[in-house]
Every structure is written in C-alpha cells, then in structure tokens.
C-alpha cells in the first residue's frame, strides 16, 4: 500500500525516511514505535491529513493521491485519533452518525437499525439514547470507533485506542477489533502496549527514527526481537549518552524527599519512594501510566492526592504554594500551557516563582535585581537570544523549556520534579538540560525525572522506578538495567 | 551588572506613548477637542470650561472607583455584573443603619454588604467553579430584589446631613494639596530620568513612567496655580483619583500586582509557580464588592437619599469603560489608568450631548458605537501585533515535529 514514503517537514525535520507498509485485506496490522518514531506522521499521510513529500500511496492496487481527509474517508479509510472529538451533549446515536450526509430529515428509525448493525459488527452494545457526556472513557472510545465504522470503511486506523483505558475497558476494544475482519474491515492498530500487539495483530510493522525496522507476521516474533526493534541498539546507546558517569553521584546523602502512601483516586495508587540529596530518580512508564500524575501528587497540584511528602524531614502540606515554600519545584510537561505566562518577557517569567527574593522587604520587586537574576539564568542555561528581554511567545521549544527551568534556579529549591524535560527540543538543548540536571545534583539537590525516552532516562538517572497504572511496579539501579528491560516492564511484559 | 542595565526596558523609551499603547488617551483628547470646537462654533461657553470639566470628573467619580476594581478583577480573568446592584443595596442599607445607629455603623454596614456579596461571588466562582457570568448575573437579580425588599420599594432619605461634611473640608485644602502632589510627581520624574542613566553616559534617559509623571506634575501645578477653582473637586473625585493612583502603583510596583497579572495571564502556570491562585481570584471579587459598597455609600452621601432603582445597570458603563481602556476580557492584561480614561470618555460624551442640547436620544447610540469601535480596533491591532511577533522559529534537526508546541497563544490585548 505504501511504498517508499518519505516525509520532510518544511522546517527540515525528516519524520519519515522511506517507509514501506502493506496492509492486506481482512487483517489486523500492528504499528509500533517509540515516541517520535514517525507513527503519527505516517497515520496522517495514510488518512490524507498530510501529503507525502516523496513516495507513493496505492489503495486497492491503484496509485492515489489524497487531497485531504475527506477524500481518504470516501475511498474507505477511516481514522480514530487518540482524542477523537465527540459532542458530549448529544446522544450515542447522534454522535455515531454526526458526519453522515444525505437526507435532510433525521430519520431516527433507519439510524437505529444501522446502529444495531454496527453493534453486531463490534459485538458490543450501548444505549442509543444515552448522552455521550455520561459515558465512561472506554464507552466513549467505542462511540468513536462506531462513528468511524458508520462510514463503512474498508480500512480502520486506530491510534492508541486503549492508552487511557482500564484493563476491563481494553478488553471491550480488543473484542471489537477481533470482530472487525469478519465483516471485511482491515485494521491498522497503533499501540505502545506490546501484550496487546502480540495478542491482537496478525502482522506487525515497527518504526524507529522514521524507518521500518521490522515487518513480520506476529506469530513468528519473540518479545525480545520486538523490543530491540523498537529501541534500537540499547546497550550501545546507553554507553554513548552516559559520559556523565551517573556512578559519580552514588555517594548519596540523607533522604531529601520522602514520599509515603501517595494516593490519588484513578491516578496514583499507593506510591512510596525516597530520593537522597544528590540523587536523580527516574520514573519510567508509558503514556498514561501515571508518571506525570505522581509528580503532580507530590507537588500538591493534584488536589485529590493524599499521602505524606517530607522534604528534609519536614512534612509538606498539600498545595503548590506550600510545596514551593518547602523547596519543591515542578517543571511541567506542557511548557506553553503550564509553564509560562504568555506576553511576558523571559525575566518576568523567571522571577515569578521567587519574586519576594528579588523584592524590597519581600513586597516591592526591584527590577535591577530581577534582571540580574534573569540574566544569570539566561547565561547559565545559554538561552537564545541571550537576553532576558525576549517575550516568551517568541522562544523556540528548547529555549522556552530552559526558561521554565530558569524559574527554579535560586537558592530555596531543594527538590526538582521534572516532567519530560527534554521532550520536543533539539539535541543541543537536550544536552544543556542534561548537564544542568547533573550540576543541580552536584549542588546537593534531589531530582525526580519523567522521561519517555528510556535511553536518556538511564543516562540521567541513578535509579529508575517503573510505573504502571499509577503504581511503582519495579525499581532498578540505572547501571544494572537496560532500555529493553524497562520497555518490557513498563509495557507489562514481565521480562 | 553593566550588560543588564543597558538592556533595561527604558531602552524601549517612549513606546508607552505610541498610538497602540495609549490610544484611549488620544481618543479622550479627540472627543474633548471635537466638543470644544462644536460648542465654540455654536457660540456656547466652551466645553473645556472649569465648571464643565469639574462636572465631568465629578460624574466619573463613582464609575471611576468601580472601574478600578473591575479592571483588577478583569486582569485576574473574571468579571462581575453585580456591582451596580450591590452598590445600590449597600447605599440603602448604609443609609438605613446610619439613620438609626449613626454614621460609623452605617458605613460599616454598607462596606459589609459589598464585601459579603464579593465573598459569595468569589467562592461560587473559584471554589465551587460556577461560571462568573452566571454567578454575577444571578447575583445582580437577587441583589436588586433584596434592594426592593430592604427599601420596601420606597426612597430612603437621610435624616442628618453629616454625609456631606467631609467633602467641604477636603475642598478647602485642595489647591495646596494638588500643588504638593504635582511637585512630588515632578521631582520623581526628574529623579527617574537622571538616575537611570549609567555613570558613563550623560544626558537623560526618558521612559514612559518618567514622562507621564512629569507631564502630570506640570499639569497639576500649573492647573492649581492658574485655575484654583478647577481643583476644588468633590470628595468623590478625590477618592476616585487616590484609589486609581494607589491601584496603579500596587499593580505596577508590588509582588501582589505582578501576581495578579500572572494569575490572569496563565492561571495554571501561576499555580505551578507556587502562587495561591484562588486567594488572588477571590480577593479581586472581594475588592470589587467592597468598592461597590463604598460607591453605594458615596451615592447616599451625595444625594442624601437612595431610591430603589439607585445605580441599577451601572455595571454596563463600567464594563464598557474597561473595554474602552483596552482591558482584556480573558485576563492577564489591562491598566487601571486607561480604564478610568475610558470612564472619562463616556462622561465627556454625556456632558457634551447635554451642553450641545442634543438630548439623551443620540447619546446611547454614540456610546455604543464608540465601545464597539474601540473593541474592534484593539482586536485588529492585537492580531497584527501577534502576526508580527510570531516569527517562524528556526528548528534544528529533530525527529519529532509534533513535539514543538507553538507557544504563541497570547491574547493579551484581544478584547471580546
């Protein structure tokens, strides 16, 4: 179907470098790859949302060129994206047939019959007149799938349909996917959960760095081969990025951060750990595993979280304001939404968290002191352009991230909680941030870091806690584990 | 240190006076000049006569106090439709209590009503999470109903004339007070302009603050010396001006002010920076309620009576003035001073129509057009500015195109 597809973005990013992918009729085809491997881009090209830069798309044996998603849909390719927009105030029936065209009048009887036919096809039924807003996340996912099926597609692309679902909800989606080939629909199934891929699919294609690294019938695959195709050459990579010698930090001091019995309904379940001064602890887990939620629960920004958090032996009450006063700092995952004030310059963003320190009597900010601190942060983080006067909206991703970091480079911070500190930023900035983390630990800070790239996590962290469904399921010394082992643990294949 | 001071915002120089930033001030000047020309051409006494200017300021006093608080509330990302009704209720309650228990208790009762409404609004919006529009719309209706109940739908009259006495004492002192304030502003302007200069450079470094302070200082001193009558404003006007200056200074020069802008600019980022967002948002509601209480009290003092329809719908011109002043309805940006200028524009329009004997029929039509035009101008200017500032980012080789989030979602001067 796809033949040598290449996608080069206008900014020079090569997301896909000659991907071949063939899906046969009536099969479930697995598509797997780490974050940034090019899965999303590939899906967008197949569904017509993006044109390929080079290469051919053939649909049912004929070469085609989609001029937008509508055309692909008409030809019989329907896509269920990770967060499909549904209208919560409309019923299941109305949502499923939201995009159906044709009759002016809404013929409820005909639609109901068609809905029942769809229910049969997936082997799962929902009350047709229930409002979508009242459904569970799993049932909403089923509505999205039914919505795509209502177009009678020959190929259904499911982008991580189970990522945010509980185990029992997953089973429903799995059953539906198993039923589909019988009614003549092929499925491309994208997932991080390898046990799912192993049990559901007939063929697996694995992408890494925009290339196909494996394309074989599932039955002939072992888990180990699957993982090494996703990860690449894990050992080599860890060695390469590990020049900082995490071993140097191991003479860790007394526990600086102590977390006991941290719970947050539906997000975090009974998490306890300690981090010593000078230590970096990594949280390894898949998307939706609860790693970010653990950081927010520790920081107190999750109001529902209960449990004991101590910094330097003193309990911290559960609110971000108290956490900051106790010396906790959080660098959130979404810089634009959670980290920066739009329209403000770098300096005002940097001094926001500790403004009283730069103020006369803690009340009247002194601009000279603020600019001095911002300037030194800009210099030590090599933020570009090298001035604290830039308005943050104009910064690139890496520099915006460094600015969020810059907020916490003052004396009072003891423990840093970093959520995906290097996601989506270029190699140079990544390196700067890794060096900064080491610098911080050398100064006696404790760091907890979440990173989807396990190779990088192993390079930064001294110790890794594997997180799955809101729990810490394993603990590993960063020097005695491998990326493969972490992937296996995190995706539920006990290695 | 040296490289920092050379990059001081003063470098931006007089950008605060550009049309885009100070448009509302120029709009006021144009409105005033047009009316001046029209009145003179019709052989009437000039629009800029002492009496007229005093009238305009006097009529702006109550709305001015409300707009200062409303601007702070808008900056935190909320708004309040119930200020007019709350002021009416506070005025009536204050007067009833003052008639029976004396002025002090009456004052406390009025302020208490305002603070109480503010607390209820703030808690419902911030803690319970109900939309501010719905909460304050409901509050507007409920408080109007309460006003009818409290007054039994009859006008409450003041039984003693004490409310007015503070005003006259203040008026007697005002020319010297104005001269002193003007002189202080001048001294500050000169100190700022010279003090900012690095020792190696000579000459003045002018920025928006020093020039505004200087111009205001000169205007105040000259005005007080040349036309002493102009400075004998009513108490309400002086309270409004003092509140405006105080609020501007707090917003501009204190930690609290910086955080107010942060809370409205990006509440989540502010929260994760350790700012108690709820406290600031509820605080702004309480401030708005309290100043509504004060306004009700001043209304009662000014007229010696509160009718059951007192100050009804006053929230509309107040919100309109804040929009005229360029305050964003989405939070994070706004200036108290500009909002008060917005009130002055609306009051000038009213006064101008009166002086020209055009009657109230056209007045609202023109006011409405002015408000919509102002909002349109701000929106278009905001879009142009965003288009100009969001230059394409240089992107280095990376395999994750979706990871780079465009941070440019600033809506800081977008209105409506």
Describe this structure in words.
The complex is a heterodimer of chains A (495) and B (416). Chain A has helices spanning 39-46, 69-75, 92-96, 108-122, 137-149, 167-179, 194-200, 223-231, 234-241, 291-299, 320-326, 335-339, 346-351, 367-380, 397-406, 427-442, 454-460, 483-490; strands spanning 2-8, 14-21, 28-33, 54-59, 62-64, 77-80, 155-159, 186-190, 203-208, 211-217, 255-264, 268-276, 280-284, 306-311, 314-315, 328-331, 359-360, 364-365, 415-419, 446-450, 463-468, 471-477. By secondary structure, chain A is an alpha/beta fold. With 416 residues, chain B is mostly helical. The two termini of chain B are 42 Å apart. At the A-B interface, helix 11, helix 12, strand 18 and helix 14 of A face helix 1, helix 10 and helix 11 of B.
Tell me what portion of residues of chain A adopts beta-strand conformation: 15-25%
Instruction: Give the overall shape of chain B, derived from the CA principal axes.
Output: globular
Total DSSP E strands of chain B: 2
Strand order of the largest sheet of chain B: 1-2
Round the Cα radius of gyration of chain A to an integer and report it: 25 Å
What structural category characterises the helix and strand content of chain B? mainly alpha
Number of helices in the DSSP assignment of chain B: 15
Largest sheet of chain A: 6 strands, mixed
Name the helix and strand elements of chain B from N-terminus to C-terminus, one letter apiece: HHHHHHEHHHHHHEHHH
Strand content of chain B: under 5%
Radius of gyration of chain B: 23 Å
The residue ranges of chain B in which pLDDT falls below 50 over 5 or more consecutive positions are 1-12, 197-202, 390-416
Q: Unreliable runs of chain A, pLDDT <50, ≥5 residues? A: 234-250
* Helix fraction of chain A by DSSP (H/I, runs of at least 4): 25-40%
How far apart the termini of chain A lie comes to 35 Å
Quantity of strands of chain A, as a count = 22
What order do the strands of the largest sheet of chain A run in, or round the barrel if closed?
A: 6-7-8-3-9-10
Number of helices of chain A: 18
Average pLDDT for all residues of chain A:
80
């Amino acid at each position: 179907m796809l033949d040598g597809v290449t996608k080069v973005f206008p900014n020079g990013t090569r997301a896909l470098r000659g991907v071949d992918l063939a899906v046969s009729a009536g099969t479930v085809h697995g598509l797997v790859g780490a974050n940034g491997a090019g899965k999303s881009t590939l899906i967008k090209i197949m569904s017509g949302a993006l044109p390929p830069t080079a290469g051919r798309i053939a649909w049912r044996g004929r070469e085609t060129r989609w001029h937008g998603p509508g055309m692909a849909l008409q030809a019989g390719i329907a896509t269920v994206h990770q967060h499909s927009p549904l209208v919560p105030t409309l019923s299941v029936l109305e949502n499923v047939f939201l995009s159906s065209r044709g009759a002016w009048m809404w013929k409820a009887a005909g639609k109901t019959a068609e809905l029942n036919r769809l229910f049969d096809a997936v082997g799962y039924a929902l009350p047709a007149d229930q409002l979508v807003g009242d459904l569970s996340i799993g049932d909403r996912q089923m509505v999205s799938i039914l919505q795509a099926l209502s177009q009678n597609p020959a190929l259904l692309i499911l982008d991580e349909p189970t990522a945010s679902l509980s185990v029992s909800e997953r089973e429903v989606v799995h059953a539906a996917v198993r039923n589909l080939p019988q009614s003549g629909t092929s499925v491309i199934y994208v997932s991080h959960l390898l046990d799912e891929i192993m049990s559901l699919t007939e063929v697996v294609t694995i992408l890494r760095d925009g290339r196909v690294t494996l394309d074989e019938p599932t039955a002939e695959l072992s888990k180990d081969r699957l993982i090494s195709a996703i990860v690449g050459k894990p050992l080599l990579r860890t060695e390469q990025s590990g020049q900082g010698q995490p071993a140097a930090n191991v003479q860790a001091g007394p526990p600086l951060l102590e977390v006991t019995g941290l719970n947050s309904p539906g997000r975090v379940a009974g998490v306890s750990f300690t981090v010593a001064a000078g230590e970096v602890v990594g949280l390894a887990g898949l998307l939706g595993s609860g790693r970010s939620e653990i950081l927010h629960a520790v920081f107190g920004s999750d109001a529902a979280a209960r449990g004991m958090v101590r910094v330097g032996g003193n309990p911290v009450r559960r609110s971000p304001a108290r956490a900051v006063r106790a010396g906790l700092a959080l660098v959130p995952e979404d810089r634009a939404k959670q980290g920066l004030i739009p329209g403000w310059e770098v300096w005002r963003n940097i001094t926001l968290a500790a403004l009283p320190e730069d103020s006369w009597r803690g009340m009247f900010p002194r601009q000279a002191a603020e600019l001095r601190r911002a300037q030194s942060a800009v210099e030590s983080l090599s933020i570009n352009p090298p001035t604290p006067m830039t308005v943050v909206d104009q910064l690139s991703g890496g520099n915006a991230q460094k600015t969020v970091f810059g907020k916490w480079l003052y004396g009072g911070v003891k423990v840093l909680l970093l959520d995906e500190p290097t996601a989506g930023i270029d190699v140079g900035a990544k390196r700067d941030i890794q060096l900064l983390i080491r610098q911080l630990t050398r100064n006696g800070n404790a760091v907890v870091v979440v990173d989807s790239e396990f190779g990088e996590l192993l390079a930064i962290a001294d110790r890794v806690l594997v997180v799955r469904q809101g729990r810490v399921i394993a603990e590993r010394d960063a020097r005695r584990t491998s990326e493969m082992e972490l992937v296996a643990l995190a995706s539920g294949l006990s290695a | 240190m040296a490289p920092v001071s050379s990059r001081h915002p003063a470098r931006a120089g007089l950008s605060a006076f550009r049309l885009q930033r100070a448009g509302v001030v120029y709009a006021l000047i144009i409105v005033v000049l047009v009316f001046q020309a029209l009145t003179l051409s019709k052989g009437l006494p000039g629009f800029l006569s002492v009496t007229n200017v005093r009238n305009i300021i006097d009529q702006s006093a109550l709305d001015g106090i409300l707009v200062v608080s409303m601007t702070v509330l808008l900056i935190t990302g909320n708004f309040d439709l119930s200020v007019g009704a709350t002021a009416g209720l506070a005025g009536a309650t204050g007067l009833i209590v003052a008639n029976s228990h004396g002025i002090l208790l009456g004052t406390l009762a009025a302020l208490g009503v305002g603070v109480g409404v503010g607390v209820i609004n703030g808690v419902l919006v911030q803690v319970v999470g109900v939309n501010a529009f719905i909460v304050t719309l409901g509050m507007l209706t409920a408080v109007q109903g309460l006003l009818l109940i409290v007054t039994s739908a009859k006008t409450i009259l003041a039984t003693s004339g004490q409310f007015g006495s503070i005003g006259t004492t203040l008026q007697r002192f005002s020319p010297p007070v104005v001269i002193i304030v003007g002189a202080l502003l001048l001294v500050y302007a000169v100190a700022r302009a010279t003090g900012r200069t690095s020792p190696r450079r000579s000459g003045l470094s002018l920025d928006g603050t020093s020039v505004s302070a200087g111009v205001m200082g000169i205007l105040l001193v000259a005005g007080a010396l040349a036309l002493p009558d102009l400075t004998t404003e009513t108490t309400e006007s002086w309270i409004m001006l003092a509140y405006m200056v105080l609020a501007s200074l707090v917003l501009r020069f204190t930690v609290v002010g910086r955080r107010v802008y942060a809370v409205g600019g990006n509440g989540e980022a502010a929260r994760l920076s350790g700012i108690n967002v709820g406290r600031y948002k509820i605080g702004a509601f309480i401030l708005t309620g309290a100043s509504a209480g004060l306004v009700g009290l001043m209304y009662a003092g000014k007229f010696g009576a509160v009718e059951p329809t007192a100050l009804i719908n006053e929230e509309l011109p107040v919100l309109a003035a804040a929009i005229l002043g360029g305050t964003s309805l989405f939070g994070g940006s706004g200036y108290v001073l500009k909002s008060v200028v917005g009130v002055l524009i609306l009051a000038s329009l009213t006064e101008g129509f009166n002086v020209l004997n055009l009657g109230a029929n056209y007045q609202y039509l023109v006011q409405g057009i002015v408000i919509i035009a102002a909002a349109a101008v701000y929106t278009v200017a905001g879009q142009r500015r965003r288009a100009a500032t969001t230059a394409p980012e240089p992107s280095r080789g990376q395999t994750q195109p979706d990871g780079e989030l465009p941070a440019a979602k600033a809506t800081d001067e977008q209105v409506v």
